[in-house]
Amino acid sequence: MKPFIMVSTRPEIEAAQDEYESFLTQGALTRENLHHVLLEEIDFLDSFAAGDVSGVFIGGSPYNASTPQVSKTRTQLRVEEQVRELLAVALKEGVPVLATGFALEVLAGYLGTPTSTEFAEDFGIADVFLTAEGRQDPLLAGLPQTFTVFVGHHEGAVDVPAHTTLLASSPDCPVQMLRVGKTVYGTQFNPELDAHHFAQRVSIYADAGYGDPGQVETMLSEARRGHQHEAGRIIRNFVTHFSRH
């Protein structure tokens, strides 16, 4: 099988590594079949050949796409530029992509749709529902009409970008999952996170403004008791659907 690539956009090495481990677990992949790239350390595009991979996962980040340009760090500007360039290659050459969190926000901006803090969600659990198109999409095969996901983001897309298909939505964040063409997907929620990895993510970003840190332990206890990690099926379906030999 041609490998998949996991592109981390996070500046925190511990969080990026744990994110990679989460995708390994949910995709039932080996390290040989899922290569890890830290985007801010390596110019991935210089060595990226579309025909050599099965697909690309682009992870999330504490960066906000809506931050004014003059306030963005040099690192954030470089990461956003490389994500946009990667998306351009993927859309042009038909490379399968699953962009999560911040990467969906960059994708929306690339397609001409801004993000807004109006659609932020604190660290926690949200119920998302499939649209009619989502019920027919291969990446959502086997998922119920409504399922529970882990969330935590400062902003969300203000609308469904032109020429995309909305696959999943929620009351607080209408653009939870979309598809561009047949091979490029984005999720605002984090399909890679089960309760264990969500707890690790929260421990790293507890003071990053994603909600009341004092409520984190209560929320995690509830998540461990009652949360079924159905969203991981999206990653497994992505791997099954797009694997190339």
Short description, anyone?
By secondary structure, this protein is α/β, with parallel strands linked by helices. Helices cover 33% and strands 22% of the residues. α1 packs antiparallel against α5 (195-205).
Overview of this protein structure:
- The model has no long low-confidence stretch (mean pLDDT 88).
- 45% of the residues are buried.
- The protein is 33% helix and 22% strand.
- It is an alpha/beta fold and 245 residues long.
- The chain is globular and about 45 Å long.
- It has helices at residues 13-27, 44-47, 74-93, 102-110, 195-205, 216-226, 232-242; strands at 4-8, 34-38, 55-58, 97-100, 115-116, 121-130, 146-153, 156-157, 164-169, 177-180, 184-187.
- The protein has a nine-stranded mixed β-sheet, with helices on both faces. A two-stranded antiparallel ribbon has the order 5-8.
- Helix 3 (74-93) crosses helix 4 (102-110).
Give the key terms.
two-stranded antiparallel sheet
What is the 3D shape?
Answer: globular
What kind of sheet is the major sheet? 9 strands, mixed
End-to-end gap: 4 Å
Strand order of the largest sheet: 2-1-3-4-11-10-9-6-7
> What is the CA-based Rg, rounded?
16 Å
Count of DSSP strands: 11
List the helices and strands and how they pair.
Blueprint: E1 4-8, H1 13-27, E2 34-38, H2 44-47, E3 55-58, H3 74-93, E4 97-100, H4 102-110, E5 115-116, E6 121-130, E7 146-153, E8 156-157, E9 164-169, E10 177-180, E11 184-187, H5 195-205, H6 216-226, H7 232-242
Parallel strand pairs: 1-2, 1-3, 3-4, 4-11
Antiparallel strand pairs: 5-8, 6-7, 6-9, 9-10, 10-11
Helix pairs in contact: 1-5, 3-4, 5-6
